[in-house]
User: Which sequence fits this backbone?
């Protein structure tokens, strides 16, 4: 079929080597963003020819890394059931899921998504899901009815970022406990209830 660009599914061993390469790339690039393809191959435990067979050049590897991380993040958001779970439950689940994925893919998810790519579309979809959950939370009176949702979205993202990168000595590491803290702070701030 001429003109089709759909990739053939990879064999199980090829999928495994791609997964190993992407995981190694994340580990190495998060420490040294200038790491070479050869260093990534060594970190993954594969040969130079294997990494070059799977990825024509370094940018292809980076693009695949960004897409893989975006897919995992989008799945984490979807697993929180943003349109069907009660808003507080959805907010907690999504927060815990996102913290887990973002914690594992800090380098890949720090890359800006190239406009027009699948990764960019996934990020746009996640933004919409976030606004949906916030809108549903407003309807459920969890947040003020006059709340500016785009502003609250930025505040929520800032709390996620601070949770992931703020205090490296934070004793709390469990995604559910971190999510509870983020959601509590997001919904109630530093003020007492009363």
Assistant:
């Amino acid at each position: 079929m001429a003109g089709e660009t759909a990739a053939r599914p990879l064999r199980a061993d090829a999928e495994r080597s791609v997964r190993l390469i992407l995981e190694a790339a994340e580990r190495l690039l998060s420490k040294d963003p200038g790491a070479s393809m050869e260093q990534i191959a060594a970190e993954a435990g594969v040969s130079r020819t294997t990494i070059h067979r799977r990825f024509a050049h370094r940018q292809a590897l980076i693009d695949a890394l960004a897409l893989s991380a975006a897919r995992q993040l989008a799945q984490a958001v979807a697993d929180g059931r943003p349109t069907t779970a009660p808003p507080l439950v959805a907010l907690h689940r999504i927060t815990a899921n996102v913290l887990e994925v973002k914690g594992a893919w800090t380098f890949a998810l720090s890359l800006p998504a190239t406009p027009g790519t699948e990764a960019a579309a996934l990020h746009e979809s996640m933004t919409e899901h976030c606004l949906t959950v916030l809108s549903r939370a407003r309807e459920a009176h969890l947040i003020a009815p006059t709340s500016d949702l785009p502003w609250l979205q930025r505040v929520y993202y800032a709390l996620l970022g601070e949770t992931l990168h703020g205090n490296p000595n934070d004793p709390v590491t469990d995604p559910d406990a971190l999510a509870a803290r983020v959601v509590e702070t997001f919904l109630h701030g530093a003020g007492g209830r009363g």
Observations:
- The chain has two domains: 10-55, 66-188.
- Residues 23 and 42 are 12 Å apart (CA to CA).
- The two ends are 66 Å apart (CA to CA).
